[in-house]
Amino acid sequence: MPTTGGTMTDAAALIAALEALADETEREKYTRYFPIDPDAPFIGVRMGAVFGLAKTALDLPADELETLLEQPTHEVRALACSIMGKSAAEPRTPGARRTELYELYLRRHDRIDQWDLVDLAARDVIGRYLLERDRAPLAGLAASTFWPERRTALVATFAFLRRGELDDAYELAELLAGDPEPFVQKALGWVLRAAGDLDRDRLTAFERHAGAMPRVALRAAIEHFDKSERARILAIR
After folding, report:
1. Count of CB atoms within 10 A of residue 22's CB?
2. pTM exceeds cut of 0.90
3. Residue 4 pairs with which residues in a beta bridge?
4. Which of 39, 96, 216, 218 is deepest in the core (most CB within 10 A)?
5. HEC secondary structure over the chain
């Protein structure tokens, strides 16, 4: 198994390690949370094990990461996204590495096509990369017809919210307030809830969009409001 300084650097070895952890009972559990897709099967590896394996491969080259993303197995692609997210989150990661991860994520978003894959990497690979850059790419993602890209735009703003920056989150929330995709609706609600924890008045002002927002998004957004305030806002919907 090729390694450098204790770090796995070979996609084939990582795939073999995952396959050795496959368990039928775990595979059946995944069917509760994901639609059955014969073209993107689960093999039954616990996500905790996937994340543990990712920690051994934070320096995995971009071409090897792309090899992982190209695999049909869901846990293999989850491993790729976990590596990307963890590598981008590491403070000592060089700028060139952050750039290649950002570019790979966007170029192969066709393989980052489930809500959990987006959530594993979007905040740190996309959001963190854009912290000191023009954030216009997020509007492009938000306008995509491919719903995982719209979810990426929203999840990426958690990097900004960590710094107390709310504008991008609200701009995207306005663009996606009426989004029909449930997985985008849920992300919208979570982003607004987090933004509201930082500035309750600004979230309250956002209620002008309540009539257009799907109920699942609205409920998540106002989860931390008191009961009477939640009832008042939900009545608008």
Report:
1. 15
2. yes
3. 7
4. 218
5. CCEECCEECCHHHHHHHHHCCCCHHHHHHHCCCCCCCCCCCCCCCCHHHHHHHHCCCCCCCHHHHHHHHCCCCHHHHHHHHHHHHHHHHCCCCCHHHHHHHHHHHHHCHHHCCCHHHHHHHHHHHHHCCCCCCCCHHHHHHHCCCCHHHHHHHHHHCHHHHCCCCCHHHHHHHHHHCCCCCHHHHHHHHHHHHHHHHHCHHHHHHHHHHCCCCCHHHHHHHCCCCCHHHHHHHHHHC
Instruction: Write out pLDDT tens, residues 146-182.
Output: 999 999 999 999 999 999 999 999 999 999 999 999 9
pLDDT per position as a tens digit, 117-135: 999 999 999 999 999 999 9
* Residue 7 bridge partners (DSSP): 4
Give the Cα separation of 214 and 236 in Å (integer): 11
